């Protein structure tokens, strides 16, 4: 029978990894925009991101009710907002830019949609309030090692891997390394719990990846 899950990492309490994750500081302000199905998934990496980066913001995406606090930041003249999403269509390529060094006092906020690939596409398509944001897209240097959900593709990064890449782009290598280690621990603990029958895969785990995708894989979606 499935056991109670930790409110921190989302794993069954006997396999909790929270004590092994040391909070890190980052100059980046991240906002994870979660599909409404994502919080219920034990395989979601959003919790370990938040555990490692306490300043990370979490918002629940709802088509008819955009998160007001996030909208206020997007509209603020003191905030430089970016959307992390693959530039896999001509109209998106026009919006895509590289993450340049910070040159002003404005807070830099990067919004990262989180859910299955199908859900993430829908979220962006159905959110006109994201339309005018500059698009951040990059090709990962290493294949994904996240294999907790069905139909894994080595060219697709999970959300935690995507955030680690962002930290490296921002020259925050120690925080990126700590997140990599936290993810490896999370993956192992998840598999251990699943092997003991404490977790069961959900049908909604199919075709999961976060916003980080490689250019070579985008045409296949």
Descriptive overview:
- The chain has 221 residues and is of the alpha/beta class.
- Helix content is 30%, strand content 13%.
- It has seven helices and six strands.
- Strand 1, helix 1 (46-52) and strand 2 (57-60) form a beta-alpha-beta unit.
- Helix 5 (159-169) packs antiparallel against helix 6 (173-195).
- The longest helix has 23 residues, at 173-195.
- The protein is globular and about 50 Å long.
- The chain starts with 28 loop residues before the first strand and ends with a helix.
| Secondary-structure element pattern, one letter each | EHEHEHEEHEHHH
The N- and C-terminal alpha carbons lie at a distance of 36 Å
**Rg, Cα atoms, Å:** 17 Å
Number of strands: 6
Q: Helical percent range?
A: 25-40%
What characterizes the major β-sheet?
6 strands, parallel
Spatial strand arrangement across the major sheet: 2-1-5-3-6-4
Structural class: alpha/beta
Overall pLDDT, averaged? 83
Shape: globular
Any descriptors?
13% strand, 30% helix, disordered C terminus, 7 helices, alpha/beta
């Amino acid at each position: 029978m499935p056991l109670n899950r930790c409110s921190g990492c989302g794993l069954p309490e006997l396999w909790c990894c929270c004590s092994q994750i040391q909070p890190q500081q980052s100059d980046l302000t991240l906002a994870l925009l979660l599909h409404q199905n994502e919080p219920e998934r034990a395989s979601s990496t959003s919790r370990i991101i938040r555990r490692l980066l306490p300043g990370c913001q979490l918002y629940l995406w709802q088509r008819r009710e955009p998160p007001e606090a996030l909208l206020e930041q997007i509209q603020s003249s003191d905030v430089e907002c970016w959307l992390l999403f693959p530039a896999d269509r001509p109209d998106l390529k026009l919006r895509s830019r590289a993450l340049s060094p910070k040159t002003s006092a404005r807070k830099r906020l990067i919004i990262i949609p989180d859910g299955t690939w199908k859900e993430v596409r829908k979220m962006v398509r159905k959110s006109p309030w994201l339309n005018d944001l500059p698009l951040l897209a990059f090709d990962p240097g290493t294949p994904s090692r996240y294999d907790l959900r069905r139909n894994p593709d080595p060219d697709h990064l999970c959300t935690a891997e995507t955030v680690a890449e962002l930290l490296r782009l921002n020259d925050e290598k120690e925080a990126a390394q700590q997140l990599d280690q936290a993810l490896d621990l999370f993956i192992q603990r998840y598999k251990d719990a699943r092997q003991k029958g404490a977790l069961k895969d959900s049908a909604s785990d199919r075709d999961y990846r976060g916003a980080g995708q490689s250019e070579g894989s985008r045409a296949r979606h």
